Amino acid sequence: MSPLLAEIPYWGESLLRVLGGLVAVLLPAGTIVYVFLFKMMSFMQSRLGPMEAGPYGSMQLFAEVGKWLQKEDIVPERADARIFKMAPIIVLLSTFLLVVVVPFGPDALFTDLETGIFYALAVSSVSVLGILIAGWSSANKYSLLGGLRAAGQLIAYELPMVLAVMGVVIQAGTMNLQKIVVAQNSGSMFGIDAVGHPYLISQFVGFVIFMIAIQAELTQAPFDMPIAESELVSGYMTEYSGFRFLIFFIGEFATAGVFAMIASVLFLGGWGVPFSWFGWTSIDEVDNWMNFAGPLIMFTKMMLIVFIIMWIRFSYPRLREDQLQRFAWKGLIPVALANIMVTSILKVVF
Amino acid sequence: MLGDRQQLSYIAAQAADARLNLELETEGMTLNIGPQHPATHGTLRIIARLDGEQVVWAEPACGYMHRGYEKLAEVRTFPQVTTLVNRIDWLGSFANEVPFILAAEKLMGVEAPTRAQYIRTILFELSRIANVSLFLGDLGVQLGAITPVFLAFRDREYVLNLIESATGGRFHPNFDRIGGLKDDLPAGWIDETRAVMKKLRNFCDQIEDLLFGNEIFQSRTRGIGVIPRDVALQYGLSGANLRASGVDWDLRRDQSLPMMWNKADWKVWTHPDGDSFARCWIRLQETRESTKIVDQLLGSIPAGPVMAKVPKIIKVPEGEAWVSTENPLGEMGYYVVSRGDLGPFRVKIRSASFNNISITPWLLRGVYVPDIVTILASLYFILGDIDR
């Protein structure tokens, strides 16, 4: 623990961490991811994208936030008002809770949980609750269908995600995200330590499954049936307006960013550079400047993964609900289980 | 009033509901898809009774956009009617004018000069390309892929520019006249069109790669919404929907009209499957064929006038005429009755979409909600064409 925080009582520290998480990570991440994605998507679709708000459209997110905040916050007459209002906050909460365990540098982290990845996977499923009650409490048939689809889908894809992470956990021998980062950067492959040992290479199957699963967890195409704008109008978000819709909307992009961070921690070496470059051997030897460089490195990797997520999103049509379930249970889960077996055998052998 | 067949299916649906209620104590849900719904680009309403996500019974309710064109045509003169019929299928509007004008010409016994016939055919095919290229993009949106529609809008714009430079109107050219065309082609139009046709063929290749080759697209459309050959004929389907069910029928080839399709070398595609994929695939191939037709006709346009000798004030002699053509959406025909006045006494419009969606109660039974969208998209209707 840093000396600065030593004098502050526990509740104050927790509050600071939460605020820090909000301001330092989520806001810039959300903004930059949003602008980057809109530009990227526009260029893929042979158009310019946002150009008016700020230089080159870079302030588009703020313009949109301003727009949504001005709108009326409508609650349908027959909706269960209290729960209806709560739902988007639950969804956003799960994103916030998720960010807490992500390490951004040797000391730049909010919490150093021993069971970090376990915690992350657990709180990421909280958003299902929010989506389900959003769908149910809206008193709208489309919302109900969307909410039920979301519940089925998110639960089905939680499993392959957990199983894909298992491989990494077995290989690193720890659930602590910080230690997983260190294990990748200080490791070596067949005695060559020039690039460390990113699990992207040894856990490639796990990486692919993890990417597919987060695509589904984020309800992005080809797994976007819960929203399915051409069938269900807007799925569980149909009845939301004003800032509650905004929360869903920003939450979608922010969650994409956070999941991408977790993916980069698990498979791409997170904030670190291969330790051999600077002659470090353990985390204690890492220079302090990595606390500044780390978040940037992390951010670059996150952008890369978000790019892949959105690239797929913008080029694929949508699966049907039953095809989606079949894909998860008959395709991904068996492969993920086989991956765990092979990983554990190799772990024992080497 | 429900038809007999629909009545029976409704009773069956009710019975199925009752049985389910006894077994599981669940009740069905009636879902109104439309009149305002993103899947029904227009104001079509599909009433669907659902059991979970499965459709037990469905029926289209149309008429939300009825504009009374048949009645309006009775109080207009013959040349004025083209402005009305332009707006029936608003994506391929030039093609709407042609059968009406042909019917009027038939009654008057005039025939447009050869050059006018060539230009008519070219513009007809251009409006088909503009229409179907938007379908190809929209298909992606209906299935959740948002990129194809932007490609479609980009490339359709080239075609619309061509139509605009020749006729003055992007969507509603109103260019056809009884006895010929309003104007000749502008200078340089032919070369420009050739270049655009190349772009459009490129666009077809892109869409084929992006959409038709995609496994998800195939699994969403193959085997979904199968219309067997005899059912397609019973329901009076036409156009690509009929050809996708294996019926080799194309009015451009099978009918002798004063148009120039028979001067070009092109192919009528059919598909044996009759499913959604077949319908989409046929349309893709037809767009390619259309670009071929345009390319060939451009090379052989003869010189000459574009307007035959017709009186200044057009009075159509007494009589009745029926002319139908193979429009982008299917067979479109006009039955024109004249009593020798300035305007028609009665016009009956046979539009393709109305018949094409009449099959939906039969087709949607038992499918899942996502497939409703796929099937409706693949049937390809335009609301103006249903409601007139």
Please tell me about this protein's structure:
The complex is a heterodimer of chains A (350) and B (388). With 350 residues, chain A is mostly helical. Chain A has one domain. Chain A contains 13 helices and no strands. Chain A has helices at residues 3-6, 10-44, 60-70, 81-99, 116-124, 126-137, 141-172, 177-186, 199-202, 204-217, 242-267, 290-315, 321-349. The longest helix of chain B is centred in the first third of the chain and has 29 residues, at 114-142. Helix content of chain B is 51%, strand content 12%. With 388 residues, chain B is of the alpha+beta class. Chain B is globular and about 70 Å long. Chain B has a single domain (69-351), classed as Cytochrome-c3 Hydrogenase, chain B. In chain B, the strands form 3 sheets. In chain B, strands 1-2-3 form a 3-stranded antiparallel sheet. In chain B, strands 6-7-8 form a 3-stranded antiparallel sheet. Chains A and B meet through helix 7 and helix 13 of A and helix 5, helix 6, helix 8 and helix 15 of B.
What is the fourth-level CATH superfamily of chain B?
A: Cytochrome-c3 Hydrogenase, chain B
Helix-strand makeup class of chain A: mainly alpha
Q: Identify the biggest protein-protein contact and residues per side.
A: A-B, 27 and 30 residues
Structural class estimated from helices and strands of chain B: alpha+beta
Uncertain stretches of 5 or more adjacent residues of chain B: none
What is the makeup of the main sheet of chain A?
none
What oligomeric state do these chains adopt?
Answer: heterodimer
Principal-axis shape of chain A equals globular
Largest sheet of chain B: 3 strands, antiparallel
Overall pLDDT score of chain B: 83
Order of helices and strands of chain B: HEEEHHHHHEEHHHHHHEEEHHHH
Low-pLDDT runs of 5+ residues of chain A are none
User: What is the general shape of chain B?
Assistant: globular
Report the total helices of chain B.
16
